[in-house]
Amino acid sequence: MTMSTRPGLAGEADPLVDTQPAASDSPLAPGTVWIPGGSYLMGSDHHYPEEAPAHRVTVDGFWIDRHAVTNAEFARFVRKTGHVTVAEQAPDPADYPGARPDSLVPASMVFRAPSHRVDLGNHYQWWTYVPGADWRHPQGPGSSIKKKPDHPVVHVAWADVQAYAAWAGKELPTEAEWELACRGGLEGAEFAWGEELNPDGRWMANTWQGEFPQQNLELDGYAGTAPVGRYPANGYGLLDMIGNVWEWTGDWYQAHGELAHACCTVANPRGGDRERSIDPNDVAAIPRRVMKGGSHLCAPNYCRRYRPAARMAQAVDTSTSHLGFRCIIRGTDQR
Ligand SMILES: [Ca+2]
Ligand SMILES: [Cu+2]
Predict the structure, then answer these.
(1) pLDDT in tens, 302-317
(2) What separation in angstroms does the CA of 167 have from each of 61, 75, 156, 162, 290?
């Protein structure tokens, strides 16, 4: 797998106080990087409403996986534990009142590009619930991960990533931890690498170029997922925090505006309330957690969420072809 070189920190953004880029992997947990604790400006007042208000938080230091969990890593977990993912099991009708029987089969959400321009207000124009789609078959039956051992695993629901983390002796990051790590030491920067999407014309992450969802120009080299580490690392040496796949965090989704102490610095925020994370329009009442980082489907004309502050609510039972995860280790000192 390719380890890209670390970019220089952009001069226009002030580095965080009390932080030093991690020099090396943890001796205790290979493949993880130390993120120094500190205070930073979380969220943004300049983009989508769910990112506002920007507010100051303090987060304790932690170790985080250098890259998203790959297919090879997830395969090892499945081999050792026999874990069967949510997408590989038929949903229990009792959990989904009113659901059509033909929808209660093992399945997952797959992006399929339409052949023509479509109504951007209806995401079912490009998201299809595909029976037989799962982490081993990311595009559905007939597809495989044989040539993708170093791509991030996808089609993992919350129960799957939690099981993986428990097996690995790790945890899922909070949104605040994830965003601190993503920012790479740049305070309030637009992107994880500075203020420009394409500094010196370079592609810094696997996103979407062209008119989403029917035209994918692949200027960054990849139409779908890319192997981890094909783009420059951020200031902390982390790979693909932006783009490629969204990543699960452990926080129940809530609007930033509902923070209890929006006036003051919040220490180690842990998201909202489980019940209140539920979309009121969801008859199955599935709670939702925060996902971060954007994916290869984020496009300027539709979803500019290839930024550290960007966030979306994700139902815990739902897996998709553009959502993966990485883990952290809390409560241990750097040495
Ligand atoms: Ca791309
Ligand atoms: Cu997006």
Answers:
(1) 999 999 999 999 999 9
(2) 22, 13, 15, 9, 22
